[in-house]
Specification:
By secondary structure, the protein is an all-alpha fold. Helix content is 77%, strand content 0%. It contains 5 helices and no strands. Helix 1 packs across helix 4, helix 3 runs antiparallel to helix 4 and helix 4 crosses helix 5. The longest helix has 36 residues. The model has no long low-confidence stretch (mean pLDDT 80).
Protein backbone atom coordinates (compact mmCIF):
# COMPACT_ATOMS: atom_id res chain seq x y z
CA UNK A 1 0.00 0.00 0.00
CA UNK A 2 1.48 3.32 -1.10
CA UNK A 3 1.02 6.45 1.00
CA UNK A 4 1.85 9.20 -1.46
CA UNK A 5 -0.29 11.79 0.33
CA UNK A 6 -0.45 10.96 4.03
CA UNK A 7 -1.50 14.47 5.13
CA UNK A 8 -5.20 14.82 5.98
CA UNK A 9 -7.08 17.11 3.62
CA UNK A 10 -10.36 18.97 3.85
CA UNK A 11 -13.23 17.87 1.67
CA UNK A 12 -13.87 20.38 -1.12
CA UNK A 13 -17.65 20.58 -0.93
CA UNK A 14 -18.14 24.33 -1.40
CA UNK A 15 -19.48 24.65 -4.93
CA UNK A 16 -21.12 27.09 -7.29
CA UNK A 17 -24.53 26.82 -5.64
CA UNK A 18 -23.14 27.77 -2.23
CA UNK A 19 -21.05 30.60 -3.66
CA UNK A 20 -24.05 32.07 -5.50
CA UNK A 21 -26.26 31.74 -2.41
CA UNK A 22 -23.80 33.50 -0.10
CA UNK A 23 -23.11 36.25 -2.64
CA UNK A 24 -26.80 36.83 -3.33
CA UNK A 25 -27.51 37.01 0.40
CA UNK A 26 -24.75 39.54 0.92
CA UNK A 27 -25.48 41.73 -2.07
CA UNK A 28 -29.26 41.56 -2.20
CA UNK A 29 -29.92 41.17 1.51
CA UNK A 30 -27.72 43.99 2.71
CA UNK A 31 -27.18 46.25 -0.28
CA UNK A 32 -30.56 46.29 -1.96
CA UNK A 33 -32.93 46.12 0.99
CA UNK A 34 -31.10 48.37 3.43
CA UNK A 35 -29.82 51.27 1.38
CA UNK A 36 -31.14 50.75 -2.13
CA UNK A 37 -34.27 52.88 -1.94
CA UNK A 38 -32.45 55.72 -0.14
CA UNK A 39 -29.72 55.79 -2.80
CA UNK A 40 -32.18 55.75 -5.68
CA UNK A 41 -34.11 58.59 -4.04
CA UNK A 42 -30.94 60.66 -3.64
CA UNK A 43 -29.21 59.91 -6.94
CA UNK A 44 -32.13 59.46 -9.29
CA UNK A 45 -31.19 58.06 -12.71
CA UNK A 46 -27.46 58.42 -11.93
CA UNK A 47 -27.81 55.28 -9.80
CA UNK A 48 -27.43 53.27 -13.02
CA UNK A 49 -24.00 54.77 -13.63
CA UNK A 50 -23.05 54.16 -9.99
CA UNK A 51 -24.12 50.52 -10.32
CA UNK A 52 -21.97 50.08 -13.42
CA UNK A 53 -18.97 51.65 -11.65
CA UNK A 54 -19.52 49.33 -8.64
CA UNK A 55 -19.68 46.37 -11.03
CA UNK A 56 -16.39 47.35 -12.65
CA UNK A 57 -14.74 47.76 -9.25
CA UNK A 58 -16.11 44.41 -8.01
CA UNK A 59 -15.04 42.40 -11.06
CA UNK A 60 -11.32 42.85 -10.38
CA UNK A 61 -11.22 41.24 -6.90
CA UNK A 62 -13.63 38.52 -8.06
CA UNK A 63 -11.29 37.62 -10.92
CA UNK A 64 -8.30 37.71 -8.54
CA UNK A 65 -9.98 35.28 -6.15
CA UNK A 66 -11.00 33.02 -9.03
CA UNK A 67 -7.45 32.94 -10.38
CA UNK A 68 -5.89 32.36 -6.96
CA UNK A 69 -8.41 29.64 -6.16
CA UNK A 70 -7.61 27.86 -9.40
CA UNK A 71 -3.82 28.20 -9.05
CA UNK A 72 -3.62 27.56 -5.28
CA UNK A 73 -6.27 24.98 -4.39
CA UNK A 74 -5.65 25.07 -0.65
CA UNK A 75 -8.08 25.41 2.22
CA UNK A 76 -7.71 28.76 3.94
CA UNK A 77 -8.72 31.20 1.21
CA UNK A 78 -7.65 34.76 1.97
CA UNK A 79 -5.24 33.71 4.73
CA UNK A 80 -3.53 31.13 2.54
CA UNK A 81 -3.26 33.40 -0.50
CA UNK A 82 -1.72 36.27 1.48
CA UNK A 83 0.60 33.93 3.43
CA UNK A 84 2.00 32.38 0.29
CA UNK A 85 2.34 35.73 -1.47
CA UNK A 86 3.58 38.19 1.14
CA UNK A 87 4.26 36.28 4.35
CA UNK A 88 2.55 34.70 7.31
CA UNK A 89 2.01 37.94 9.29
CA UNK A 90 0.20 39.52 6.34
CA UNK A 91 -1.76 36.29 5.92
CA UNK A 92 -2.97 36.44 9.52
CA UNK A 93 -3.96 40.09 9.08
CA UNK A 94 -5.76 39.38 5.79
CA UNK A 95 -7.53 36.36 7.28
CA UNK A 96 -8.80 38.32 10.28
CA UNK A 97 -9.88 41.21 8.03
CA UNK A 98 -11.89 38.72 5.99
CA UNK A 99 -13.52 37.23 9.10
CA UNK A 100 -14.38 40.69 10.45
CA UNK A 101 -15.91 41.67 7.11
CA UNK A 102 -18.08 38.53 7.18
CA UNK A 103 -19.28 39.39 10.68
CA UNK A 104 -20.07 42.94 9.50
CA UNK A 105 -22.06 41.62 6.52
CA UNK A 106 -23.90 39.21 8.80
CA UNK A 107 -24.71 42.07 11.15
CA UNK A 108 -26.03 44.13 8.25
CA UNK A 109 -28.20 41.26 7.07
CA UNK A 110 -29.51 40.74 10.60
CA UNK A 111 -30.31 44.45 10.90
CA UNK A 112 -32.16 44.42 7.57
CA UNK A 113 -34.10 41.32 8.64
CA UNK A 114 -35.01 42.81 12.02
CA UNK A 115 -36.21 46.05 10.42
CA UNK A 116 -38.51 44.14 8.05
CA UNK A 117 -39.56 41.83 10.89
CA UNK A 118 -40.71 44.84 12.95
CA UNK A 119 -42.36 46.38 9.87
CA UNK A 120 -44.28 43.16 9.23
CA UNK A 121 -45.59 43.07 12.79
CA UNK A 122 -46.47 46.78 12.59
CA UNK A 123 -48.51 46.09 9.45
CA UNK A 124 -50.68 43.74 11.53
CA UNK A 125 -51.01 46.31 14.31
CA UNK A 126 -48.51 44.72 16.71
CA UNK A 127 -45.79 47.00 18.08
CA UNK A 128 -42.78 45.09 19.35
CA UNK A 129 -41.36 46.52 22.60
CA UNK A 130 -37.71 46.33 21.51
CA UNK A 131 -35.67 48.03 18.82
CA UNK A 132 -34.60 46.57 15.49
CA UNK A 133 -30.99 46.78 16.71
CA UNK A 134 -31.79 44.55 19.69
CA UNK A 135 -33.36 41.96 17.39
CA UNK A 136 -30.30 42.13 15.09
CA UNK A 137 -27.92 41.61 18.03
CA UNK A 138 -29.84 38.53 19.14
CA UNK A 139 -29.90 37.14 15.58
CA UNK A 140 -26.17 37.78 15.06
CA UNK A 141 -25.24 36.26 18.42
Amino acid sequence: MSLTNSRPTLARTFGLREAVTITAGSVIGVGLFTVGSNVVGSMGPAVILATIVALLISVYPALLYAEMGAMLPYAGGTYQFASLGIGRAAGVLAGWNFIISLVAVTGGEALAFSFYFKTLFAAFGVTLPFSAVAIAVVITA
